[in-house]
Amino acid sequence: MIAQLVLSGLSQGAIYALVALAMTVLYRATTVVNFGHGDMVMAGAFAVYVMVLYLGLPYIAAAFIALALMFALGMAVDRGLVKPARHGPHIALAMMSIAVGYFLRGVARSLWGREVLPMPRVFDIPPIFLGDLVITGDAIVILGAVTVLVAAFFLVFYRTNVGKLIQAVYQTERGAALIGVNVARFHAVMWGVAAAMGAIGGILIAPVTLLYPDMGANLLIHSFAAMTLGGFGSLGGAIVGGLLLGISEQLLGAYVSTALIDVTAYIVIIAVLVIRPVGLFGRQAVVKV
Length: 289
Prior knowledge:
73% of the residues lie in helices and 3% in strands. It is mainly α and 289 residues long. It has one domain (1-275): ABC transporter involved in vitamin B12 uptake, BtuC (Orthogonal Bundle). Strand 2 and strand 3 form a beta hairpin. Helix 3 (59-85) runs antiparallel to helix 4. 41% of the residues are buried.
């Protein structure tokens, strides 16, 4: 039973990890915490839903179009809304991200109200039986896709010139600008990348869960919990934190109370901030005087 719960937790945690990684990438690149990121995930899921059900597109084609749309949306948000507020107080950027999220949620509510919408299944993969362990087709697709995407991300980030350029901007924007990097364009691209990465999470869960306009809020809390547990700003920590959170939810729900599934993320945030505020892989900030 434990192995089955851990597998289910890994599958759910992989989505948390992917969304948390997208938020961490944006935070590291721009120092902006995107409180509207959960709603961008929702928008990606609904984009696929519309194209599959209303336009009759194949799921894969719809997924790629949704990624392109969310990338464009992310860049548009930066250029049109975040960039003008960048030189104001930092709280203004947080407020702007909240406003963008609520706008997306409002659009979804205006179209579908508070309905819970099922999406036709697209992953027709038979389960694999390993003794008492059942690996469902959904778990295979989600874990496989997230593993490939995360591996590709870290390969690009640490092993390519593009990744080294990104790390240079992470270290110092002024230094990057001095060597010819267009920092403003870099920020816009990273907003697009983060929105597309978050949309992948929505695209993956769309066929295996129910869709509703407020689903982004739930994902946002779980992503914050994953980032807090792994260490705020740590790319690897976001992955580990998401997976541990998913497993914790399943184990606590099975062995303690099912009610804990809904509050595990909040418990994790509180516990980590009290016991180890920097998380598992975060670094203590050093203030020089």
